[in-house]
Amino acid sequence: YAFSYYYDRAVDTDMIDYEKGGILKVEDFERKAREVCDNLENFTSGSPFLCMDLSYITALLKDGFGFADSTVLQAAVLR
Questions:
Q1: Angle of helix 50-59 versus helix 26-38 axis, rounded to 10
Q2: What residue segments make up the domains of the chain, in order of their start?
Q3: Is the pTM of the predicted complex or chain greater than 0.70?
Q4: Angle (deg, nearest 10), helices 4-12 and 50-59
Q5: pLDDT tens track for 7-34
Q6: How many whole angstroms from its chain centre is CA 2?
Q7: For 71, which of 28, 55, 61, 67 could close a Cys bridge (C-beta 3.0–4.6 Å)?
Q8: Among 14, 26, 1, 13, CA closest to 77
Protein backbone atom coordinates (compact mmCIF):
# COMPACT_ATOMS: atom_id res chain seq x y z
CA TYR A 1 0.00 0.00 0.00
CA ALA A 2 1.25 3.47 -0.90
CA PHE A 3 1.44 6.37 1.51
CA SER A 4 -1.30 8.95 1.97
CA TYR A 5 0.33 11.76 0.01
CA TYR A 6 0.87 9.45 -2.94
CA TYR A 7 -2.84 8.74 -2.82
CA ASP A 8 -3.69 12.44 -2.72
CA ARG A 9 -1.51 13.24 -5.71
CA ALA A 10 -2.86 10.27 -7.67
CA VAL A 11 -6.39 11.57 -7.02
CA ASP A 12 -5.42 15.16 -7.85
CA THR A 13 -4.18 14.04 -11.27
CA ASP A 14 -7.08 11.65 -12.02
CA MET A 15 -4.91 8.54 -11.88
CA ILE A 16 -7.31 6.98 -9.36
CA ASP A 17 -10.80 7.63 -8.03
CA TYR A 18 -11.01 9.27 -4.59
CA GLU A 19 -13.62 6.84 -3.22
CA LYS A 20 -12.47 3.62 -4.89
CA GLY A 21 -8.71 4.04 -5.00
CA GLY A 22 -6.99 1.93 -7.61
CA ILE A 23 -3.96 0.05 -8.77
CA LEU A 24 -0.99 1.96 -10.16
CA LYS A 25 2.50 1.17 -11.31
CA VAL A 26 5.53 3.26 -10.46
CA GLU A 27 5.76 4.17 -14.14
CA ASP A 28 2.29 5.76 -13.90
CA PHE A 29 3.65 8.37 -11.48
CA GLU A 30 6.60 9.01 -13.78
CA ARG A 31 4.37 9.34 -16.83
CA LYS A 32 2.03 11.73 -15.03
CA ALA A 33 4.98 13.78 -13.70
CA ARG A 34 6.21 14.28 -17.26
CA GLU A 35 2.72 15.21 -18.45
CA VAL A 36 2.21 17.75 -15.66
CA CYS A 37 5.71 19.24 -15.86
CA ASP A 38 5.49 19.57 -19.65
CA ASN A 39 2.03 21.20 -19.49
CA LEU A 40 2.01 23.34 -16.35
CA GLU A 41 -0.53 25.75 -17.83
CA ASN A 42 -3.11 22.93 -17.93
CA PHE A 43 -2.64 22.05 -14.26
CA THR A 44 -2.84 25.47 -12.61
CA SER A 45 -5.99 24.63 -10.66
CA GLY A 46 -4.08 22.11 -8.57
CA SER A 47 -1.17 22.72 -6.27
CA PRO A 48 1.59 24.93 -7.68
CA PHE A 49 3.94 22.17 -6.52
CA LEU A 50 2.25 19.36 -8.46
CA CYS A 51 5.14 18.93 -10.90
CA MET A 52 7.68 18.85 -8.08
CA ASP A 53 5.55 16.53 -5.93
CA LEU A 54 5.06 13.96 -8.69
CA SER A 55 8.75 14.12 -9.61
CA TYR A 56 9.71 13.64 -5.96
CA ILE A 57 7.31 10.71 -5.53
CA THR A 58 8.74 9.08 -8.65
CA ALA A 59 12.34 9.57 -7.48
CA LEU A 60 11.55 8.26 -4.01
CA LEU A 61 9.80 5.16 -5.33
CA LYS A 62 12.55 4.36 -7.82
CA ASP A 63 15.77 5.63 -6.27
CA GLY A 64 14.83 5.66 -2.60
CA PHE A 65 12.88 2.43 -2.31
CA GLY A 66 14.41 0.72 -5.36
CA PHE A 67 11.10 -0.14 -7.01
CA ALA A 68 11.08 -1.01 -10.71
CA ASP A 69 8.88 0.90 -13.15
CA SER A 70 6.58 -2.13 -13.29
CA THR A 71 6.12 -2.38 -9.49
CA VAL A 72 2.41 -2.40 -8.68
CA LEU A 73 1.04 -0.10 -5.97
CA GLN A 74 -2.36 -0.57 -4.36
CA ALA A 75 -3.90 2.79 -3.48
CA ALA A 76 -6.88 2.50 -1.15
CA VAL A 77 -8.74 4.32 1.58
CA LEU A 78 -8.75 2.28 4.77
CA ARG A 79 -11.96 2.77 6.69
A1: 150
A2: 4-75
A3: yes
A4: 130
A5: 999 999 999 999 999 999 999 999 999 9
A6: 10
A7: 67
A8: 1
